[in-house]
Amino acid sequence: MTCYQTISCPTCGNTKIKKAGTSAKGVQRYICQTEECSVQSFMLDYCYRAYEPGVKKQVIDMAINGSGVRDTARVLNISKGTVMSTLKKRKKYRSSKPKLSSRERKICD
Predict the structure, then answer these.
(1) For the chain, is the Cβ count within 10 Å smaller at the N or the C terminus?
(2) Owning domain of residue 16
(3) Is residue 89 assigned to a domain?
């Protein structure tokens, strides 16, 4: 009996997926075929929790809310070194602030 698994892109949700080789651990990589999609490649099962999409954003969010490095590492099940390196590189992951018009700046001040 043959079973097929439908694979969709984690970013755009499209099912136009192409195989893109394997990782060093032998896990299959995939790439999205839509031009609008920003994802370069992805895997269904990651070897390390820190590589999963969204974990880096969670680290930054927890730091903003006052969680310590050890607490963040324990809750997200990643190493303290990963938390520290993510926080050092946080400008890369931070979303930009929306620009305010001169009228809106006067109201906020």
Answers:
(1) N
(2) 8-45
(3) yes
- Same domain? 52 vs 81: yes
What residues contact residue 39 under an 8 Å CB cut-off, 6+ apart?
9, 10, 11, 12, 31, 32
| Count of structural domains within the chain | 2
Residue 31 lies in a domain: yes
Alpha carbons 51 and 73: distance in angstroms, whole number: 14
Sequence-distant (≥ 6) Cβ neighbours of residue 56 within 8 angstroms: 50, 86, 93
Give yes or no for residue 66 having a pLDDT over 70: yes
State pLDDT tens for residues 80-91: 988 898 888 876
